[in-house]
Structure formats: C-alpha cells, structure tokens
User: Fold Glycerol-3-phosphate regulon repressor from Paraburkholderia fynbosensis.
Amino acid sequence: MQRTREEALNGLLPEQREQVILERLRTHGRVLAAALAAELQTSEHTVRRHLRDLAEQGHCKRVYGGALLISPADKPAAVRMSEAVDRKARLASAAASIVRPKQIILLDAGSTNVAIAAALPDNADLTVVTNSPEACSRLLTRPGFDVILVGGRMTRGAAGALGATALLQIQQVRADLCFLGACALDPDEGVAAFDAEDAELKRAMVKASGQIAIALTSEKLMTAAPFSVAPAAAIDYLFVEADVPPARLTSLEAVCDNVMVARS
Assistant:
C-alpha cells in the first residue's frame, strides 16, 4: 500500500528532515519553526536544532520564530557583473523612470546599479555621485551628467570603494535620490549586506538621501545577510521582477511605499 504524504514525512530520518527544511528555505526564503514542526510531525525543539545545524553550515540565518535563507549574492563583483544581464537591464529601465532632471543621484556600487547607470537617458541633467568605477565609466562620455567618483579602498572582488575615505565623502553629500545596493531583503529583517564596511557605507547613503530606491533580482528577496543596513520601511521605491509570487509581493507592499514590477 502506498504511504500517505503525512506518513512519509513522519517516517523521515533526521538528515532527511533537514533536507526537507532546506528545500522549504530555497522555495519560500523564510520558514517558521512551528509550521515546519506541524508539517514534519515532530517537535519545535527538533526543528530548531535542524535550523541551528543548517545555519552553522551557512545555509540560513536564524531569526525570531524560524530562519531565512542566506542570500546568494556573496560573489565577486566580476561574477555578478556577468550574471542575469537581461534581467538587470529590465530592472534598470524601470528604476531609471523615476529620475528627474537636476537631481543629485547617489548611486551605490553593484551590478544592477551599473545597469541603472547605463539606463539613465542622455541629457538627463543629473549630478551622479557614485563609489562604483564601473558605473562611473558608463556615464563619463555621455552628455547631461556631472559625475563625482567617491574614492576609498578597493578590496579584492569588491564592486566599489569602501572604508573611511569613502564614508567621509558620502557623509558630505545631500542627495535627492539614492539607488542603494542590497545583498538581501526581507520585509521583517530589512536590507542587509555581507561586509561590515559595506553596510556602514550603505547606512551613510541612506542618511544622506531624501529618497531610497532599490532594484533587486528575485533570488535576493526573502533572504538574509550578516550585516543590517536599513529597515524595509526605509525604501521609498522597490523594483522587483515579474516572477515574484503574489503573496511575496503583498508582503513587500505592506512595508515599502512603492513596489514596482519591471516587465519586459
């Protein structure tokens, strides 16, 4: 006789339960210990132990009541620049639509923000302040841009300048709009980064800007990274891809002022 799904889950070995939990994390991003315990017909204590083990293996971050999948964005800049180019271009086109002439734009480093630099229209009459050499190179030869490149320490694999010099320069800026780079975003946990100095610089960018915009590929949503940058409520414009599930979109709309879907 074929076993029911409930019987199959009830008979799982510990390593099999852990694999099921990891699959749920990869599918949903956030998991709750109570819900997993009910589904796997085991105790919350057992589920929490599995989540602790998965966190120690680098798969997730423990949060209140459960866990979040670790963002896949912890890769060298050169790798990220070559990934999902068409998807980032669609996000960039949508993000560029909110820019207005004569604004001071603070453009954070990151592959999607490099795409935003390329998507900004010629003769836009903008001042763009950026810590990204790649973004700077996309703008320098085009009409209508006054470009200020923030200096500082460039680490191996980094997409932009970091450190005390960059932080001091950002603190002297008063921008109308910031396109903030984000390694991870969750409605409850907010925006996060993988590097402590990067997170500190991003927090300074948030403080220096009148409005905050983030364009984010889907795999970074409902994920975590070690260093907190800002709450999700600090985001004035969030640009996401068309494949974001409706329930996930609703949870983002509950905390972000304007969630805009980039369509082809």
